[in-house]
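Standup notes
- HV: blocked on the assembly model, inputs below
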Amino acid sequence: MNKFIQLCGAIVLSGGWLLAQAQQNLLSNGDFSNTNQVSGWTPSSGALRWSSDDADGLGSSGSMEFDLPSTVGAVSGCFAVVPNATVNMTGKNRVLAGTDLFELIRFRCSIYSDAVCQSSVLEVLDLRGQGTSSTWVEMAASPPAPPDNSSTLPPTARSAHCEIQLAVLPGNSASMLFDDLSFSSQAATPVTLQSFDVK
Ligand SMILES: [Ca+2]
């Protein structure tokens, strides 16, 4: 065996790094599967309710219910974001009562330059729901957002929070459920390359 082949036979690669695209929902309890139900969400008026009606039919999860006109919104906790990350939003809504009575159905996430969601807003991303369906429907991006709802965060982005905003035609009552709310970041994360020998 010549030296070259001996050398090749001894090559061992280990501990190398690859970059993989991993998608992670940064929004806490966006699927309302927490045993504390609507934990992590604060009503902007009135009170929030947890519903056992789950958008995916899961017995271990539920959704967040808004009863208007008393409860017209809710805000998530503040969470960290990675500058320049590619993000996208998804969510589902269902009219429980008051089909065609909603004036506004919005799932909105605001991006901040400080770590605690207190600075002026750098960017707003949002989805619009449908007020015409009594079954679960996917929320859709508001133009000019691309169809896949993806966006690149500003280089100064540090934190974000999300909110639900609702309005009903004056003098009316209505109820709506939300589930599967997601603000996902697609960040390059290192993955350990497994060792291998060249024989
Ligand atoms: Ca759920």
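- HV (later): unblocked. The longest helix spans residues 3-9. The longest strand covers residues 174-193.
- Next: hand off to the docking folks.
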